[in-house]
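Researcher: Predict the fold of DNA-binding response regulator.
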Amino acid sequence: MSSHIRIVLVDDHDMVRQGIRTYLLTEADIEVVGEANTGEAAVELVERLQPDLVLMDLLMPGMDGVAATRAVLKARPQTKVLVLTSFVQDDKVLPALEAGASGYLLKTVLGDELVRSIRKVCAGDTVLEPVVAAKMLAALQKPKEQELGWLDALTEREQDVLRLLAQGLTNQAIGEQLFIGIKTVKTHVSNILAKLGVEDRTQAAIYALKNGLLEADEKKE
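Model: Structure tokens for DNA-binding response regulator follow.
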């Protein structure tokens, strides 16, 4: 992905899109190439404009943001989706992340933090509002009677990488923790995604948390 970030804004409120667009205009490396007020229009724009990132609202008439996220990523897997919404309920957060969103922010986010988050997501990182991260972990780390046989498909090093990935670490931080290069980390992450049958690192983290990986580690300590 180039250093120039092409964005499609998706929100059914004109004033919200205008405010975001106006702020992003001050960033030399970010360009708003299209806007949509429905999920259906967002999918059409992504297919036509092939942006690097979609800023996606959740509650819209017709196709909602979760369904639109799935459709966008099916049409163009290279495009990143960053949810920007007013809602933090559990029934909104997990479906959006499971649909493939690489981040979840609230509309109260400060402008500078939004820009940093856009750049992080386009660089391959996952971005979660702190309250969203807390809710996700609370929901996923409930006691479970689950077997960890699925881990047998991963090598020991891939398991180490997945544990750190599930804790929200970036590729660089994982490399520093395990004393391996970023290219090696990326290779392990690609192998993990293929073996778990998921599409991105966010879904891999959710899979690991849902299936009790970190919980099992805590019991060993």
